[in-house]
């Protein structure tokens, strides 16, 4: 794979990020519409059930994935037979996960004291098979940087799932609407990925696979540990406090992580191939990483601070007044979202450089710490769990940034210093100003409008007064201009 020059790589990165953010803006609107509509048609216990199902499916997807799609994206070269073998490996793992899920569904129903799981879990088992056989086709689209098609693969399944869920929920008022939403989205995503993948699968044959499997195994180890941290709250609350508290928590959680999942996960598909090509040049790699932190971390962090400050109004609009008990949960999770957004940049750096083993060692420290803090917070109820979540991700981000700087020999100050400056100059004023407006201005829509205006004033003031922040704004403006350039749409 030829090493592109910095300008060409920057053009592709900027264009890919622009397409991805635009498409995820559309998907975020779909998710918010789903949250607002379905929260009024179904109850907390239904969403508690969905939270358990999604946690189980997420674990199965990690095993089914085995880190192989990202291994394919990150690889410097990949033969056709390697691609074919990866399709069959992920497909076989998908079948195994589906069978295991059907077999363990009665035991999980007993663990969570919810007999509905004996029917629901087998119903979602085919998702593993679909995602397994289509995973490498989607990886090929990512590897070739066809970001427009990736955007549609994100957007169309979400819209299809929502449409089916709303129709079923309005007609039946049943939790099956939420189940069908997941299945329909998986079917559409798998179909689009396979059709647009760009190669026809053949039969598996001998090919060099050791390096790919080694990379994937290290990555899967980190992802399993991250899964434990991200889903321990669901398991703890569901097993100890029951379905209704879990429903309140899961709705607040889904609302809080929406900016993260709808922006950062897709940006990973832009960042990893771009950073992987920049990796041989450490200086260029570091520059792109700082940019990634600005767009994928700090901009998202500012949004989280505004959401935390206006938590009561946001919950009232998107979930309805019957979900008011979830407001403090939502606020705490948004604070945690600030540090989860920043920590994602560390994930990009490890994966794109091929240092997944080093990342695994880091996660062996940070992820159990997050789980322990959430478990300690359980004594204070669901709000305590959310507070433990926020504190855990703050510590994990700080440790991860220092660890990545040393492991990759790029220096942790290159990321840590600008992040801390922007947190003080942008994020903290936005949080305080929106919280003050939410407290002292009556109503719902007026505080939201004034809060958005106040956040913009804080951002503008910090950008004018602080040189480092002003430089970030200039970088953003330059990259926006780059988006309008006519340049190479792909890199060889």
TrEMBL record:
<feature type="transmembrane region" description="Helical">
    <location>
        <begin position="448"/>
        <end position="473"/>
    </location>
</feature>
<feature type="transmembrane region" description="Helical">
    <location>
        <begin position="41"/>
        <end position="63"/>
    </location>
</feature>
<keyword id="KW-1133">Transmembrane helix</keyword>
<feature type="transmembrane region" description="Helical">
    <location>
        <begin position="120"/>
        <end position="139"/>
    </location>
</feature>
<feature type="transmembrane region" description="Helical">
    <location>
        <begin position="294"/>
        <end position="317"/>
    </location>
</feature>
<feature type="transmembrane region" description="Helical">
    <location>
        <begin position="151"/>
        <end position="170"/>
    </location>
</feature>
<dbReference type="InterPro" id="IPR050833">
    <property type="entry name" value="Poly_Biosynth_Transport"/>
</dbReference>
<feature type="transmembrane region" description="Helical">
    <location>
        <begin position="390"/>
        <end position="408"/>
    </location>
</feature>
<dbReference type="Pfam" id="PF13440">
    <property type="entry name" value="Polysacc_synt_3"/>
</dbReference>
<keyword id="KW-0812">Transmembrane</keyword>
<feature type="transmembrane region" description="Helical">
    <location>
        <begin position="84"/>
        <end position="108"/>
    </location>
</feature>
<keyword id="KW-0472">Membrane</keyword>
<keyword id="KW-1003">Cell membrane</keyword>
<comment type="similarity">
    <text>Belongs to the polysaccharide synthase family.</text>
</comment>
<protein>
    <submittedName>
        <fullName>Lipopolysaccharide biosynthesis protein</fullName>
    </submittedName>
</protein>
<feature type="transmembrane region" description="Helical">
    <location>
        <begin position="176"/>
        <end position="199"/>
    </location>
</feature>
<feature type="transmembrane region" description="Helical">
    <location>
        <begin position="329"/>
        <end position="350"/>
    </location>
</feature>
<feature type="transmembrane region" description="Helical">
    <location>
        <begin position="362"/>
        <end position="384"/>
    </location>
</feature>
<dbReference type="GO" id="GO:0005886">
    <property type="term" value="C:plasma membrane"/>
</dbReference>
<feature type="transmembrane region" description="Helical">
    <location>
        <begin position="420"/>
        <end position="442"/>
    </location>
</feature>
